[in-house]
Design goal:
The complex is a heterodimer. Chain A is α/β, with parallel strands linked by helices. Chain A contains 5 helices and 5 strands. A 5-stranded mixed β-sheet of chain A has the order 2-3-1-4-5, sandwiched between helices. Chain A starts with a helix and ends in a 7-residue tail after the last helix. By secondary structure, chain B is of the alpha/beta class. Chain B has 2 domains: 117 residues, Up-down Bundle (Methane Monooxygenase Hydroxylase, Chain G, domain 1), CATH 1.20.58; 166 residues, Pectate Lyase C-like. In chain B, the strands form 2 sheets. In chain B, strands 1, 2, 3, 4, 5, 6, 7, 8, 9, 11 and 12 form an 11-stranded parallel β-sheet that branches. The chains are: A alpha/beta, B alpha/beta. At the A-B interface, helix 1 and helix 5 of A face helix 4, helix 5, strand 5 and strand 7 of B.
Amino acid sequence: MGLLSIIRKIKRKEKEMRILMVGLDNSGKTTIVLKINGEDTSVISPTLGFNIKTIKYHKYSLNIWDVGGQKTIRSYWRNYFEQTDGLVWVVDSSDIRRLDDCRAELHNLLKEERLAGSSLLVFANKQDIQGALKPSEIAKDLIGRTTADASQWPMLVID
Amino acid sequence: MEPEPDHTKAAAAAGAGNRKHLAMLERLSKRAVILSPDSNSSDASPVTTFLSCFAAAKLAAESALSACRSSPEDAPSSLATAAAAIDDLDRLVAEASHSLPPYELRSALAAVSDLRAAHRLAASDLRPKKSFSFRNKSKAPNKPPQDPPTLPPPPPEQPKPNVQVILPGFGFRGRKDTTLLKDLRVSDEKDGDFTLTDLVSCEVHLKGKWRALYVHKLKDCRVFVGAVFGSVLIENVEHCTFVMAAHQIRIHEVRATDFYLRARSRPIIEDCSGVRFAPHALKYKGIEDDLRDAGLEEETGNWANVDDFKWLRAVQSPNWCLIPEEERLQTIEISDVQDREDDK
């Protein structure tokens, strides 16, 4: 259908990207988004539901979906998977006790078919905390244990 | 009868552009087809004809889609039927697009794209897309056949390291019946992250400005904390009392515990019962400076604005309440509390 394909082409030119921020509660997702956007981070309540920020970057328009990470609302993450271009998995590098939870939740996500084809970024947050795990340790723990996943998901760690 | 096309309008449009002129010609030729004697719907307008054909094809597509949902074993054939029906719809819309009023055209296009989306969804449920993976294109085809494509055996589950061993440096853990004191202002550690784990019947005093606090597995304890300018995470606690000021407070799996809080943001509870809240009430020499430096000098009243993630309704959660004023502790003075044992 001619009209539809024209509309699709126009949409593609706009270069809209949908970025989904997820991770356990207390990992700092909302803080990261507000920081990137240059907003005040002094009063942030634990996210109940989600926030959306649109950030312009060169010719891209990034729609960042920051979704709450509390255990009760993790089951709603799936509602945001459709048409996600990039997935940012935020880790509290100092919360070693809950690293098992963190790994289990991430692997649940990686099984999700609707996320196949989107890129994964693991954000090793809270590196400034003494005793925090190094990015390489986080990578090994979260991804390294299942070699199959490691080869499927390109990964970049920011200090 | 066939309604006459608006000739004046059509003429104006044709004047406006060659494309519209062509459209008009096409519309006229279509009218000729409809008016031809072998057409059995010559008394209906093209719009009505289109709408009835469209509705029939749409019904076929929808029933095929619902069939593949109801009987998964026949799903592949139902999917193919649905795809064919949707293609029919596309063709119908394309053919009729010149004679359709804008509204009908728009709604028809929307219906088709909805069906396409539903079909895509059903198809992806049925045969999941292959996950993205890097492939080595230069892989020689003459390689000896690999063993059956089983996944490599999962690495043996590593014995879980003892949590106490791997927790970050600072903290009190595994203590019983004692008073624990840490004053960040006199210690040489500039970092202010602290962990309290596995404490029973302890009294804990943390003075100074803390960056983050992790609390896990406490029973029958009293915990007094100066100012936390980051977040506090409290899990698995029962029969305790906390007095603290912090920017962010998360409380998980806590039973029968009182919190005297000052918080910049709304405290949250999850999987808790019998937790009660009251305003911050702590004094020690210099606490005003700690609170001010941590941005916590102002009483926001958020100690009473608790969000219960297990009770997302307008009515009050049964899991928490405010401490009645007559039951509240007096302001607690901890200036002179000494370590009961040498901790360092």
